[in-house]
Amino acid sequence: MSVAIVTGGSSGIGSSTAVELARRGASVVLTYSSNEAGAKQTVAAVERHGGKAVALPLDVGRGDTFPAFRDQVAEVLRGWGRDSFDVLVNNAGFSSPALFPDTSEEQFDRLYRVLLKGPFFLTQTLLPLLADGGTVVNTTSSSTQIAEPGYSGYASMKGGLVVLTRYLAKELSVRGIRVNSVSPGPTRTRLGDDGFEKYPEVIPALAAKTALGRLGEPDDVAVAIAALAGADGRWITAQDIEVSGGFQL
């Protein structure tokens, strides 16, 4: 039995990833910040696929909580007859669009804490529990390559996460740990305060900019993450894989 930790597992890409990993035989520890109801729905979906899942609260923007979270994970692992886990998916995040002249220092700092500092130190904190030969997958963004007004702060942090991915792949390779990232394009998630639900009129324009002609779905990204995390990705490390359907191709 493999065990995966998926941050931001209460909805969107994180929820779909937890379910996809369970379909492939993993037990899952998923985290949530405010959406406990969504986390419970994800746990139920994992269990419907015959897997085990536990949802734990975690604010990825608060590094002071990480040691206590690691202790909670260790307790869950003991209950499953394990002392280590195999897959870490750093997925939790948020979007706060603002044009460059309008971006406040407070917005910038929050993006930094959640999107870059959080994955850095959460991975560091959990590293003693990550099994040799395990894998880390970071969720980045196609905004690091395709400049859309309003995302300079967000994309800067995701770009930093791409660089961190390569460095972790180098340093952790001595333990056989692979580290990659996936870079979604526009995907139907709750990111941006449920933007696609509130403003469905933007969807046709985004689909028109996508080579495959539609908006991405969380499952489209989840299968890529699961492939990188499993045996299919055994010879892939230090890569940022765009999963966008050819957005702005």
From TrEMBL:
Task: Give the range the annotation lists for the signal sequence.
Answer: none
Supply the alphabetized keyword list: Oxidoreductase
Q: Which family does it belong to?
A: Belongs to the short-chain dehydrogenases/reductases (SDR) family.
- Keyword Oxidoreductase: yes or no? yes
Q: Name one GO molecular function term.
A: oxidoreductase activity
User: Where is each Ketoreductase domain found?
Assistant: 2-185
| SMART domains with a match to the protein in the record | PKS_KR
Q: What is this protein called?
A: NAD(P)-dependent dehydrogenase, short-chain alcohol dehydrogenase family
**Claim: Translocase is one of the keywords in the record:** no
Query: Which InterPro entries does the record cross-reference, listed alphabetically?
Result: KR_dom, NAD(P)-bd_dom_sf, SDR_fam
